[in-house]
């Protein structure tokens, strides 16, 4: 019957395979098949499948099984249609399995991978069907090849591991099958044995005790076991998923008992030699330790641990240490054996290590390793073995280790410092120290010990961190180092502050300064064999079966994952520091080392720093109670830094900064007693690293996602914008902390990062808006803002900064004005922007101006030659105030204030010039400064320019023109001519009927009465004596009051004031009869004009000018005509001084004329216009200047239009366009005098002065062009010939414009001649 069923299945398989699975089909051609969920009875004989059931089986769950149907022919005939369908489905699935098993003989790796995956899927649904199919395939195909059988073992392992339950019968069957093949020698060597052994190991997942009993029996025979048995024991020991926690403890206990029973074998020479040979036998790949060898190292250590004879232990360990130390896993195994032996033989193991450390190979390898031959490589990394051994000894000795810590540390430090530096030494050192620190943390009473070697060890760790490459991150070295530092800092003695600072700086730099993650990923990819950075224990060898497709989480082989772990380790270190010393001082100490990174110009460094900072604040908020009685130290700087980073272009940095601000706000509210600090239900304990350095917390993406997202969503502070958070936080800061916030913002204004500058300016403005009134150290802030303003290139940032100054000015004008004066010599554009910001609001502009005037009046004189530095020059602020006031006159913000303060400014500027003359400061820049282009105006020139600007910008340009056209500004250059300059200015105001006379008069009367400065009284009296000629005087100061003032001046301490007062008392205002007397004397002076002496004539003319001035508003009366005629007669005198004096006299006469006198002198004025105009080009500068003034005064008297343009042309224009404009003005306003002007111009063509002759020719040329008809009626042939000759001569003039003009005129003259002939 069985034979019939087998043939039936074979027939069905062949039929299905021929129909559905043709030979050579690809994985994609296999269509979907369905595994029947129904259960059938087993084909096996019950007597074969039933066996003794131990407790291991009784504890299992019962699972339904699915077995292929093997029924009799009669029973098959009796099947119902439904049962027949089930039968066919099971048969079909079995055929599929057979087909896949057969296809395993192929060599296509992709197809094999597909088959293993398919088998695994089938095993999850119906494991018994697949197991039975495999079993049957083995039985029915006994002659299959070794490689085919090898792949079947792989498939069997997959199925057994994938099954949730394994029937006892299958366990026995496949255990027997595995044992039969584990020791076979084939062409596949160890690979075939390992595949069979893996089946046995997979069975241990379901029932490990029978397997363990068999292994124990084989192990304790006295004959050294075959490697396959050791392989199974290694897999069973290393693979965590094979045994649960309880079973693993039982297995480890059984393993310990096996070791105890194996102790006698140590004295068996053959067994010991075979053990040593197995341990030192080269593996297929020396980079990985095979499971059997890994188990042997553990087992060997357990045996030595159980050995009672210390001498035997020493002998074996000495022999083990004398083997090769070339390969890393071999070194780890040796160290593990030593560590396990140390559990019971600590003294013996220590003695062996000390003895081996002093041996020749170790000394030789430490000092002079030379890779001469293969034997040398055996000892190159012996020091690495020693480090690992000390670590294992510490890890295994547990509670007994504390007294040994310093000794172990000293040996570790020695090997670290004197061994050849490479990656192997570094990793061994870190692994060993991690094991030591873990052992210390497990030991009770560690805090009662003082470990003297800890500072030295920390120094080694700093060296290690500094040697880490700054452009790559491929290992856990940084992470492990940080965890070690965390553990060491908990020990005594505590680190001193300097060492701690150095350690902290090193760690932060090592992590934060790494390149961006993208760069790290690229650098990692450049390695041909990237280092394995997967986090795993050094003593846990995980086995991966062939074809195993188990899904596992992504290993930490990416740079991002590794960086996240490293950054978390850094955060853990910072949290450890604050946990050990939970004070505000410690918090400030930690944060102060992070500020440089928060301010980094590199985005990734800022992102990392702010993430760590936020993590620390969050930890502090939820776990640590800081003393509320103790004030935060420099917390304002942190607020400023985080506030600025809220504007970072990097979104992750923005979020972290904003979250950090929220946590900081909570800490501050707790500090003020407004809310509880610790808000979590249970404080979060510090995460402790495992022995291999891996932290137990999870890692996120850049650690930017907060773990308390629900809490943050509920708390309003985390919902606010950055500006709102800043406002909330600053409400809880003390004045000192507010100042720190502002200083942080101000310092950041000088950053080269645009976002930082913009954010700093916004923060500065926000804080000033909220707290500007109560701020301190405003003066220093203003000074610092000026320094930063020079580098501000962002318009919005500059606007916000200046707006902050405006707001500060509301409450801190005195401090800011005094501070700004310090950097207003010279006054650069940035300083002036600050001044304008002070005056942006109109009320403040008046106040600023008033304070500047106050500083201007503070005019101390030098005390001696020691006044050489800024602090010894108290007058500098007065000069700075002068500079500032000069520039303010052109600022829109101060326009109204300057206009209102005109009288005060007028007197202040005049007095300031006298003060500067008293200081006797350099008047002009040095030649070297002029050559270098770095010269600044002298204080005197600045003061004079300020006075000029005051007159011109406030609408008093007539007074300005009066002095400008006379060249009177030069009178202010010396102390001796200063009074004359002030007098001329005051006289100009009187003659121009200045509207500010009354206001200025009121101000100077105050100065005369109250001022203690002689220079102020002197200037006031000079002005007053001139104002006595103004009709407006009596509106402010009655005659009697004026006499009183002048009388008081006679008693003034200053001789000059007394003299001026006396002169004022002689004014015609008080003695009207002097008018007739003076007018009566004028004819006698006219006779003096015709003296032979040039000097006498000049003096007489000057005297007549003075007499006209003394007559004031009474005027010269009828004598004015005589003055005019006599003065005009000397306009063309050959003597320069007389011409100048005559024109000056004529100008004074015109200036003193009233509208009533104009009718009698109009003809004289018109007759003087052309001579004055032509003498503008007089060869004598003094004559030209007096001609300008007289011409200008005539235009004012005649009320010509465009007065200001005319003045500017006379004062500063020199080209042909200026001459044409003046000719146009004259001809436009003097149509009736056309013939007079033309005849005068023609007469000047005979002048011996080339410039005047040229100017006359130009005048006539313009007239010919614009008035040809009139010209033809007034000139004759003689005049025409004269013009021809004149223009011919001008064609040779050096000035190109005049040559061109002459050429053009010569083309017009023929037409003029033709008209004359008609």
UniProtKB/TrEMBL annotation:
InterPro entries cross-referenced by the UniProt entry: ARM-like, ARM-type_fold, HEAT_Maestro, HEAT_MROH2B-like, Maestro-like_HEAT, Maestro_heat-like_prot, MROH2B-like_N_HEAT
GO CC terms in record: cytoplasm
Domain MROH2B-like HEAT-repeats: 245-573
Compositional bias segments (type: Polar residues): 678-690
Pfam families attached to this UniProt entry: HEAT_Maestro, HEAT_Maestro_2, HEAT_MROH2B_1st, HEAT_MROH2B_C
UniProt entry keywords in alphabetical sequence: Repeat, Signal
Occurrences of domain MROH2B-like N-terminal HEAT-repeats (ranges): 120-239
Signal peptide residue numbers: 1-27
Keyword Repeat applies: yes
Every Maestro/Maestro-like HEAT-repeats domain range: 1043-1309
Domain Maestro-like HEAT-repeats: 604-849
Region: Disordered, residue numbers: 40-59, 678-710
Stated name of the protein: Maestro heat like repeat family member 5/pseudo
Organism from which the protein derives: Microcebus murinus
């Amino acid at each position: 019957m069985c034979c019939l069923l087998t043939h039936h299945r074979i027939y069905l398989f062949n039929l299905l395979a021929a129909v559905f699975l043709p030979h050579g089909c690809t994985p994609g051609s296999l269509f979907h098949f369905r595994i029947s969920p129904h259960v059938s009875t087993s084909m096996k004989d019950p007597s074969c499948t039933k066996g003794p059931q131990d407790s291991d089986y009784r504890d299992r769950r019962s699972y339904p099984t699915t077995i292929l149907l093997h029924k009799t022919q009669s029973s098959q005939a009796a099947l119902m249609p439904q049962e027949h369908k089930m039968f066919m489905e099971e048969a079909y699935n079995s055929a599929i399995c057979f087909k896949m098993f057969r296809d395993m003989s192929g060599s296509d790796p992709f197809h094999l991978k597909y088959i293993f995956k398919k088998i695994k899927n089938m095993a999850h649904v119906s494991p018994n069907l697949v197991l039975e199919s495999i079993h049957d395939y083995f039985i029915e195909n006994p002659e299959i090849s070794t490689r085919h059988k090898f792949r079947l073992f792989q498939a069997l392992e997959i199925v057994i591991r994938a099954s949730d339950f394994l029937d006892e019968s299958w366990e026995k069957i496949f255990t027997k099958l595995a044992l039969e093949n584990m020791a076979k020698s084939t062409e596949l060597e160890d690979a075939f044995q390992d595949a069979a052994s893996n089946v046995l190991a997979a069975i241990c997942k379901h029932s490990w005790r029978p397997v363990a009993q068999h292994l124990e029996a084989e192990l304790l025979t006295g004959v050294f076991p075959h490697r396959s048995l050791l392989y199974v024991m290694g897999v069973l020991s290393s693979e965590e998923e094979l045994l649960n926690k309880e079973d693993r403890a039982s297995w480890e206990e059984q393993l310990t008992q096996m070791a105890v029973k194996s102790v006698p074998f140590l004295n068996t020479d053959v067994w010991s030699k075979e053990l040593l040979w197995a341990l030192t036998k080269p593996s297929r790949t020396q980079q990985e330790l095979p499971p059997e060898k890994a188990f042997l190292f553990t087992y060997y250590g357990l045996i030595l641990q159980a050995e009672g004879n210390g001498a035997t232990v020493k002998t074996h360990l000495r022999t083990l240490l004398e083997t090769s130390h070339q390969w890393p896993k071999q070194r780890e195994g040796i160290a593990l054996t030593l560590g396990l032996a140390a559990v019971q033989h600590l003294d013996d193991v220590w003695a062996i290590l000390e003895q081996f450390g002093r041996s020749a190979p170790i000394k030789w390898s430490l000092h002079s390793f030379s890779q001469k031959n293969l034997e040398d490589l055996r000892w190159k990394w012996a020091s690495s073995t020693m480090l690992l051994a000390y670590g294992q000894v510490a890890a295994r000795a547990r509670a007994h280790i504390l007294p040994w810590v310093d000794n172990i540390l000293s040996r570790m430090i020695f090997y670290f410092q004197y061994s050849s530096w490479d990656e192997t030494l570094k990793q061994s050192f870190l692994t060993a120290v991690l094991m030591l620190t873990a052992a210390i943390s497990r030991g009770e009473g560690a805090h009662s010990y003082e470990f003297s070697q800890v500072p030295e060890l920390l120094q080694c760790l700093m060296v290690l961190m500094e040697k880490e490459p700054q452009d790559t991150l491929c290992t856990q070295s940084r992470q492990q180092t940080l965890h070690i530092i965390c553990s060491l800092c908990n020990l005594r003695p505590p680190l001193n502050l300097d060492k701690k600072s150095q350690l902290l700086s090193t760690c932060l730099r090592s992590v934060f300064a790494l390149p961006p993650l993208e760069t790290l990923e690229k650098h990692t990819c450049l390695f041909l064999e990237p280092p394995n950075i997967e986090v795993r224990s050094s003593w846990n060898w995980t086995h991966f079966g062939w074809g195993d497709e188990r899904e596992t989480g992504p290993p930490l082989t990416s740079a991002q994952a590794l960086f996240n772990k490293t950054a978390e380790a850094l955060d853990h270190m910072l949290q450890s520091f604050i946990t050990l010393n939970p004070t505000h001082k410690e918090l400030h100490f930690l944060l102060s080392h992070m500020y440089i990174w928060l301010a980094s110009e590199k985005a990734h460094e800022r992102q990392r720093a702010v993430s760590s900072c936020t993590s620390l604040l969050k930890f502090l908020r939820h776990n640590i109670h800081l003393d509320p009685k103790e004030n935060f130290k420099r917390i304002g700087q942190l607020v400023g830094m985080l506030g600025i980073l809220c504007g970072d272009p990097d979104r992750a940095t923005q979020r972290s900064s904003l979250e950090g601000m929220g946590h900081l706000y909570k800490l501050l509210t707790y500090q003020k007693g407004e809310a509880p600090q610790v808000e979590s239900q249970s404080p979060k304990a510090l995460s402790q690293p495992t022995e291999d350095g891996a932290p137990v917390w999870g890692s996120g993406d850049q650690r930017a996602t907060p773990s308390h997202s629900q809490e943050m969503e509920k708390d309003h502070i985390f919902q606010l914008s950055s500006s709102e958070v800043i406002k909330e936080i600053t409400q809880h800061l003390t004045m000192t902390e507010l100042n720190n916030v502002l200083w942080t913002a101000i310092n950041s204004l000088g950053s080269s990062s645009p976002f930082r500058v913009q954010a700093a300016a916004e923060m500065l403005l926000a804080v000033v808006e909220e707290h500007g009134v109560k701020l301190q150290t405003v003066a220093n802030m203003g000074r610092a803002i000026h320094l930063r303003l020079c580098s501000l290139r962002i318009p919005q940032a500059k606007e916000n900064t200046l707006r902050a100054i405006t707001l500060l000015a509301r409450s801190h004008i005195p401090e800011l004005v005094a501070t700004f004066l310090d950097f207003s010599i010279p006054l650069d554009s940035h300083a002036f922007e600050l001044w304008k910001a002070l005056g942006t609001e109109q009320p403040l502009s008046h106040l600023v101006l008033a304070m500047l005037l106050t500083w201007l009046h503070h005019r101390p004189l030098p005390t001696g030659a020691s006044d050489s530095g800024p602090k010894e020059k108290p007058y500098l602020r007065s000069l700075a105030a002068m500079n500032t006031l000069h520039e303010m006159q052109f600022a829109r913000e101060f326009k109204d204030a300057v206009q209102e303060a005109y009288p005060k400014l007028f007197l202040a500027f005049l007095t300031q010039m006298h003060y500067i003359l008293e200081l006797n400061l350099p008047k002009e820049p040095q030649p070297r400064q002029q050559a270098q282009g770095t010269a600044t105006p002298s204080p005197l020139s600045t003061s004079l320019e300020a006075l000029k600007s005051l007159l011109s910008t406030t609408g008093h340009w007539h007074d300005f023109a009066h002095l400008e056209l006379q060249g009177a500004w030069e009178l202010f250059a010396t102390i001796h001519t200063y009074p004359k300059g002030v007098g001329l200015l005051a006289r100009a105001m009187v003659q121009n009927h200045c509207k500010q006379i009354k206001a200025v008069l009121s101000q100077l009367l105050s100065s005369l009465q109250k001022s203690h400065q002689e220079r102020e009284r002197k200037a006031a009296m000079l002005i007053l004596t001139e104002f006595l000629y103004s009709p407006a005087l009596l509106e402010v100061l009655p005659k009697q009051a004026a006499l009183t003032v002048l009388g008081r001046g006679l008693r003034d301490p200053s001789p000059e004031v007394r003299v001026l007062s006396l002169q004022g008392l002689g004014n015609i205002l008080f003695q009207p009869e002097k008018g007739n007397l003076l007018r009566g004397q004028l004819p006698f002076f006219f006779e003096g004009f015709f003296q032979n002496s040039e000097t006498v004539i000049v003096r007489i003319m000057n005297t007549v000018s003075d007499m006209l001035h003394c007559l004031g508003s009474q005027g010269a009366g009828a004598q004015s005509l005589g003055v005019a005629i006599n003065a005009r007669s000397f306009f063309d005198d050959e003597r320069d001084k007389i011409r100048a004096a005559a024109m000056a006299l004529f100008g004074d006469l015109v200036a003193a004329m009233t509208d009533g006198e104009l009718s009698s002198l109009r003809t004289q004025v018109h007759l003087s216009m052309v001579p004055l105009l032509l003498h503008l080009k007089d060869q004598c500068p003094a004559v030209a200047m007096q001609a300008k003034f007289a011409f200008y005064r005539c235009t004012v008297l005649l009320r010509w239009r465009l007065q200001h343009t005319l003045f500017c042309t006379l004062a500063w224009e020199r080209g042909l366009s200026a001459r044409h404009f003046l000719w146009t003005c004259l001809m436009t306003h003097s149509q009736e005098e056309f013939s007079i002007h033309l005849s005068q111009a023609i007469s000047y063509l005979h002048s011996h002065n080339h410039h005047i002759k040229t100017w006359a020719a130009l005048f006539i040329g313009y007239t010919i062009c614009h008035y040809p008809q009139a010209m033809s009626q007034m000139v004759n042939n003689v005049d025409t010939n004269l013009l021809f000759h004149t223009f011919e001569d001008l064609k040779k003039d050096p000035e190109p414009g005049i040559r061109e003009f002459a050429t053009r005129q010569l083309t017009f003259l023929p037409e003029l001649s033709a008209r004359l002939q008609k």
